[in-house]
């Protein structure tokens, strides 16, 4: 899995990325986070310094398509970090993601998208 973003979003910031792994949901399912295991998953590695940062919320998490070489699939959308303590801005190395596969029907309805993988996507929005 690869996640991408521009972090703080400074002008002319380069797009950054890192490879990541799914973590145990317990790392993200805390009283200080909006986490619903029905449609969210947790990503991170203990004591890692690589993770999404402030400004990356809403960004993509991609996986390599096992069927078509060179194609990537959207697997998740960054929801945000997990606060390390009850106060203060510090966050842990674990990040919450919305699971696109579990929310696909809702996303298609809201975006009014044609999900035909053989054609260009058409999204009208609402």
List the helices and strands and how they pair.
Elements: E1 2-5, E2 16-19, E3 22-23, E4 40-43, E5 60-64, E6 72-83, E7 91-99, H1 100-111, E8 113-114, E9 122-123
Antiparallel strand pairs: 1-2, 1-5, 3-4, 4-7, 5-6, 6-7, 8-9
Structure description:
The chain has 126 residues and is mainly β. 10% of the residues lie in helices and 35% in strands. It contains 1 helix and 9 strands. Strands 2-1-5-6-7-4-3 form a 7-stranded antiparallel beta sheet. β8 and β9 form a beta hairpin.
Number of strands: 9
Q: Number of helical runs?
A: 1
Shape descriptor reads globular
Helix content: under 10%
Question: Any idea what the radius of gyration is?
Answer: 16 Å
* Low-confidence runs of at least 5 consecutive residues: none
Assign the CATH topology: Thrombin, subunit H
What does the main sheet amount to?
7 strands, antiparallel
What distance lies between the first and last C-alpha atoms, to the nearest angstrom? 30 Å
The CATH superfamily label reads Trypsin-like serine proteases
Order of helices and strands: EEEEEEEHEE
* Mean pLDDT across residues: 78
The CATH C-level name is Mainly Beta
Which structural class fits the helix and strand makeup? mainly beta
Strand order of the largest sheet: 2-1-5-6-7-4-3
